[in-house]
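Might I ask for a little of your time on a matter of protein folding? What I wish to show you is a protein chain and, alongside it, a tokenised description of its three-dimensional fold. I should value your view on which stretches of the chain appear to form regular backbone elements. You will find the record immediately after this paragraph:
***
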Amino acid sequence: MTEIAEWNEAVDYNEFLEQARENVELMRARVDDLSLTEEEENMIRSIQNEIKILVIGTDRCNDSAGVFPVLARIASIAPKVELRVLDSDKYARFHQQFRVNGKRKTPVVLFLSSELNELCRWVERPNAVYQVVNEKNLSMDDRRGTLRKLYSDPEILRQLFGELKYLLIRADLLLGRS
């Protein structure tokens, strides 16, 4: 496995928000939008291994603005999970290696071991959002508005949380969760 050395260049989520110019208030507000059950919070707290989550994205991206707060919420609950953000524009060359269908997508979420080896990844948006966006032939402006609305939907947030939680637990299992 190859070590993801870019981790050392990434910033923590709060520093990312300090540097961000777009979608800042939206991302701050959305951290508390996701309501979790006590069982879900306990499951996240039960992560046994150190897991680093590196997100490649930008504050301009509506998908990133929807995903970052959910990851921040997960990291705030799980004592063994650390979240950092790497600017996808500044590190475009690194971001190129995670293209989907020949295109750079944001965000890219990498679940890493403490040795910075990739365990699993998640890209761009939850399945339900893909379905809605792909069913409609939206202009760029309409897509922005639709994405903002979708990431405010509690059901979309639940699905996003479920997808990310699954990969977090999978990463923990790969590292030897007992």
In short: The domain at 5-174 is CATH 3.40.30.10 (Glutaredoxin). The chain has eight helices and five strands. The chain has a mean pLDDT of 93.
